[in-house]
Specification:
mainly alpha, 2 domains, 4 helices, single chain
Length: 114
């Protein structure tokens, strides 16, 4: 181990580190603060391990969509739920990001790789 960080033959995620991550995560500790508590980690390491531990998402889901007809509003046009069969009025409806058909949250979602 060099400077508190394991060499390539050791696993970083010891039982103790995993327990500390879980305890901090469940308290709602922000990832940058968790990184300070677990030196040698990256944001990706923290989020990846939290995912593998099946920890709950720190970011709550966006509010429920507004049911409006597309002609009646200028809001986000992200289709909520199962798009087939497409039901009119099942758009997100939150304010759109400038130059986009979507709100900031759904603009990011539209650019995610599956």
């Amino acid at each position: 181990m060099v400077g508190g960080v394991p060499d390539s033959k050791e696993s970083f995620w010891t039982f103790e580190r995993s327990e500390l991550l879980e305890r901090l995560w469940r308290k709602g500790t922000p990832v940058p603060e968790i990184m300070r508590e677990l030196p040698g980690t990256t944001k990706g390491m923290i989020i990846g391990k939290a995912h593998r531990l099946c920890l709950p998402n720190l970011h709550p889901a966006p509010p429920a969509p507004k049911r409006m007809r597309s002609e009646d509003f200028e809001g986000c046009r992200w289709i909520e739920g199962d798009p087939l069969p497409l039901r009119r009025g099942m758009f997100c409806g939150r304010p759109r990001e400038l130059g986009s058909s979507y709100c900031p949250y759904h603009t990011l979602m539209s650019k995610r790789k599956s």
